[in-house]
Amino acid sequence: MYPLAACSIVAVAIIIERGLNLRRSKIIRPEIIQVIENIKAPDDLGLAYSICEKNPGPFSAVVLTALSMKNLPKEEIKEAITDTGRQQTRRLERGLVVLDTVAGISPLLGILGTVLGMIQIFRDITQFGIGQASALAGGIQMALITTATGLCIGIPALVGYNYYTNKADGLVLELEYWATYLLNKLSSFYKSAVSPDVLKEASD
User: Fold this and answer.
1) Where are the domains of the chain?
2) How confident is the model at residue 155 (pLDDT cuts 50, 70, 90)?
3) Backbone angles phi, psi at 72, to 5 degrees
4) Packed helices 58-68 and 133-193: angle between N→C axes, nearest 10 degrees
5) Residues 96-128: tens digit of each pLDDT
6) The predicted structure's pLDDT at residue 17
7) Which of 75, 103, 106, 187 is the most exposed place for a label (fewest CB within 10 A)?
8) Chain centre to alpha carbon of residue 167
9) Degrees to nearest 5, angle at CA 199 with 198 and 201
10) Cα–Cα nearest to 150, from 188, 119, 192, 116
11) Alpha carbons 92 and 84: distance in angstroms, whole number
């Protein structure tokens, strides 16, 4: 029961922590979305940079990566955004592997406790005989409590793992959407900044 108690504490802590930190308003900050939508010219990038610095998080990290490389070709910016996105995805999924592990081992720990309890009961029967049926039934009941406890811990942990995994995936997709949206704007600025004379010299 002690390992099961530890599993329950870990599961509750992760579920609460992910519930607080995976809120959409905390990840996809409205201020950053607004400033990205209002970028009309390269002069607006300074304000976007300032807003992102004031609102740290996965979203701002991706945007800042794109803004810091705004003068580079589109493919290089895209590669940098992808790398940053992978790092931020790990942040969004933090603790979920542990929650999945708790969901898997809690029922097994419960079954192990029941098996050990039944072994003890049959050992007592071998030494002292069947005795009173009520005492035997009570011992079996106590042995089965660990299985029930393990299931009561594992089922909510599995539900929480699936829920927060899907939520993290949805947030990652939204981050990718806004990163692509910003990338297209930066790419248009980069192309417009290249004069026809420069293009002609490059072709020569």
Assistant:
1) 2-192
2) very high
3) -85, 165
4) 20
5) 999 999 999 999 998 888 888 888 777 777 766
6) 92
7) 75
8) 8
9) 65
10) 116
11) 13
> If you ran DSSP here, which 8-state letter would residue 22 be given?
T
- The residue assigned the tokens 């089922």 is 155
- Cβ proximity of 168 and 26 under 8 Å: no
* This prediction's pTM: 0.77
Long-range contacts (CB closer than 8 Å, 24 or more residues apart) made by 106-109: 106/4, 106/7, 106/8, 106/11, 106/150, 106/151, 106/153, 106/154, 106/157, 107/147, 107/150, 107/151, 107/154, 108/150, 109/3, 109/4, 109/7, 109/146, 109/150
Structure tokens, 61: 């990290």
Contact 29, 60 (CB under 8 A): yes
Return the sign of the alpha-carbon dihedral for residues 31, 32, 37, 43: positive
CA 32-33-38 angle, 5° bins = 95
| CA dist., res. 162 & res. 6, Å (int) | 21
**Residue 95 falls in which region: left (phi positive, over 0), alpha (psi -120 to 50) or beta:** left
Closest-CA residue to 93 (of 167, 33, 147, 150) = 167
Contact partners, residue 7, CB within 8 Å, separation at least 6: 102, 105, 106, 109, 153, 157
- pLDDT tens digit sequence for 167-204: 999 998 888 888 888 888 888 775 644 444 433 443 44
